[in-house]
Amino acid sequence: MRSCLVTGGAGVIGSFLVKRLLLDSTVNVIDDLSSGELSHLDDVLGGQNIKFKKGTVTNQNDLLEMMRGTDTVFHLAANGDVRYRPDKPNDMDLNINTIGTYNVLEGMRKLDISNLIFSSTSSVYGLADIIPTPESYGPLYPESLYGSSKLAAEGLISAYSSLYGIKASIFRFANIVAPITRTIGKNVIPDFIDKLRATPDKLLILGDGNQRKSYLYVEDCIDGMLYLYRKQTRKVDLFNLGTVDTITVNEIADIIMAEMKLTNAKKEYTGGKIGWKGDVPLTFLDISKSKKFGWSPKHNSAESVRLSARGLLAGGSY
After folding, report:
1. pLDDT in tens, 11-39
2. How many CB atoms neighbour CB 22 within 10 A?
3. Is 317 a residue whose pLDDT tops 90?
4. CA of 249: how far to CAs of 32, 182, 256, 269, 288, in Å?
5. Chain centroid to CA 308
6. pTM for the whole thing?
């Protein structure tokens, strides 16, 4: 990779990725800052090997401007709030995640850029009945608009790879956690920290707290993306990125309360098996394929949560 474009490069994953890429590449970054923060890139902006534009993947002109001269696209831009909210338009995920991906692919076709790394999601699996869930699982029935929009984007990527010779790596992420957060669509860790700072004697938990999922530390996620892309042999391939274990929401709450020294805080629940419409109460990705290629995460789910919580509590960009 000599010159890269990172869409969503001011986001949680994107900003860590940009800094890693800058070690040996020039990097163009496009982000509309709807959920990412420019402060995430403060320590690298102004350098000679980085160019930033406030723009959106829904605008092809923005994309074409930032794609010119690059050889590889990391497409991470997406709707940052995966939760279904009845007060928001139902076409948000369609426009940003699916049509935005189409715009990225069209830009690559027009400029003859042949390398794509795409961030998908475990949400495409829906309520899978094979746990851990392998990449070969199907048919896929997503429970959320977010998951369905990402699955549609995967289909577009496969077609463009076949038609136009694009080498594409599709990564289905578990829950990615980090010592920084975003302005909207915060995950469970900063959400719990916010709640406990506001009411140190109690913590409101969505659902029943028994939801069980994998949590992957952001640095492990980036290691996996870069390593597996380089090892990939097929023109288009698909990899799960997650941990070898799961953790419950209640266990996450215990970790955060311990880090905040609020172990006597009372847990309260909204009830039900899911936190919101479209939530999947059990997500556990089978990462044996990625391990066969030689990648394994350094941290398990509990360690990832603890590292992220400590970073947020220590300051980070929080």
Report:
1. 999 999 999 999 999 999 999 999 999 99
2. 16
3. no
4. 31, 20, 11, 11, 25
5. 15
6. 0.95
* pLDDT at 213 > cutoff 50: yes
One-letter identity of residue 230? R
- Candidates 3.40.50.150, 3.40.50.720, 3.30.420.40, 1.10.357.10; CATH matching 3-176+214-241: 3.40.50.720
List pLDDT tens digits, range 171-188: 999 999 999 998 887 899
pLDDT digits (tens, 9 = 90+) for 268-297: 999 999 988 899 999 999 999 999 999 999
Q: Are strands 72-75 and 50-54 parallel, antiparallel or unpaired?
A: unpaired
How far CA 200 is from CA of 82, 193, 257, 265, in Å, comes to: 27, 9, 9, 6
- What's CA 221's distance to the chain center, in Å? 9
Alpha carbon 120 to its chain centroid, in Å, reads: 7
**Which CA distances in Å does 112 have to 67, 115, 164, 311?**
10, 10, 9, 41
Burial 244-267 (b: 16+ CB within 10 A, else e): bebbbbebbbbbbbebbeeeebee
Is residue 26 within 8 A of residue 174, CB to CB? The reply is: no
